[in-house]
Amino acid sequence: MLLVLLTESALFFLIAAAVLAERPVALAATGAAILVGLAATRFVTPLRTALGRAFERHHATALVAGAAGALALPLALSASPYWTFVATLALLYVTIGQGLNFQIGTAGVLNLAGAAFAGLGGYTVGLLTVSAGWPSWLAVLVGPLVAVTVGAVLFVPILKTRGHYLALVTIAFVFIFNILMNNLEFTGGPQGIKNIPTLRLAGYPFTTKPTVFGIGLPAHANFYYAALLMAALTTWIIRRLYDSWLGLALNTLRDDEIAAKCCGISITRGKLVAFSIGNFFIGLGGAFYAVMVGFVSPPDFDFGYSLVMLSVIIIGGVDSIPGVVLGACLLVPLPERFRFLHEYRLLLYGVVIVVMLLYRPQGLWPAAVRRYR
């Protein structure tokens, strides 16, 4: 147990130090320390074996310690409102990534329109709160349902296609959505929808700066803890679905449709259920984003963001639930950390993805083999 706690504590402090390092020397030192630690766990066999056994034996302790680290992160980042915001964005990508992974990884339904479904959730919140005067919490709950409803309509042409043609249909939907949001008058056109009311809990606005243990935190800490709860609940629900008969049936559907049909699995119903469940969580992430930043506009939901969502599950591991968490926590903060490289950081971002596809296509945390007892 001590080895587990020491490992997670060291990882937490190294990540916090790497995020808060301002000077290149400090950043290089913390980055080198992280790389040395990762290389040691990868290539020093006795250490890797000991860590593997410790985490397997004390699985619950590792989860509790990880949750404690996630709760304590805003305290470590209290001096930087910007990094608290980035950490909240990473948690939103965990929620969105779990929904997208359930569609692509578990059921094999290729969806490259993730940004459009997130935009449906965000724009629904904007229209309901600003134009219709709805409470923010109620609008956040309705936003994902709109994404599910529109997804059910889009499912009709999706059902008749597969492979590359399915990808083209979803790509076309992203561009149609973006063109509509840019040109429709009631969506605000290119200016989008501004002044979306923030969330309130028993009269407490989320834009208020909280104080925890005498430490003043940035206002985004409220959204961080709400996003953390949302990401944890989403991961738990997807885990339960993956372990159920539904997850097994969708895996069968993904691997061989003819075999699944011979086993009595309805291909249409299975794809529709997976597509709807995934769109619900993608729309939920978009709805939460709208109340967090206070506005929505077409550039927030263009095709580039669909590729970022897809990259989260490629880097983490397709059909891997913990891999999505790892992918989001790496892919969202890292490009921000290298912002001083200006346009070259996007080149670095692309190189990392290409290297992953060439040398580790199963992702950093591959999906485990199903075990039956």
Task: Give your account of this protein's structure.
The chain is mainly alpha-helical. 73% of the residues lie in helices and 2% in strands. It contains 16 helices and 4 strands. It has helices spanning 2-20, 24-43, 45-57, 59-76, 81-106, 114-131, 136-159, 164-183, 220-243, 245-255, 257-262, 267-293, 303-316, 321-331, 333-337, 344-359, and strands at residues 200-201, 204-205, 211-212, 215-216. The chain has a two-stranded antiparallel sheet with strand order 1-2. The protein has a two-stranded antiparallel sheet with strand order 3-4. Helix 1 packs parallel to helix 4 (59-76). The protein is globular, with a radius of gyration of 21 Å.
Q: How would you summarize the topology of this molecule?
A:
Blueprint: H1 2-20, H2 24-43, H3 45-57, H4 59-76, H5 81-106, H6 114-131, H7 136-159, H8 164-183, E1 200-201, E2 204-205, E3 211-212, E4 215-216, H9 220-243, H10 245-255, H11 257-262, H12 267-293, H13 303-316, H14 321-331, H15 333-337, H16 344-359
Antiparallel strand pairs: 1-2, 3-4
Helix pairs in contact: 1-2, 1-4, 2-3, 5-9, 5-12, 5-13, 5-14, 6-7, 6-8, 6-12, 7-12, 10-12, 13-14
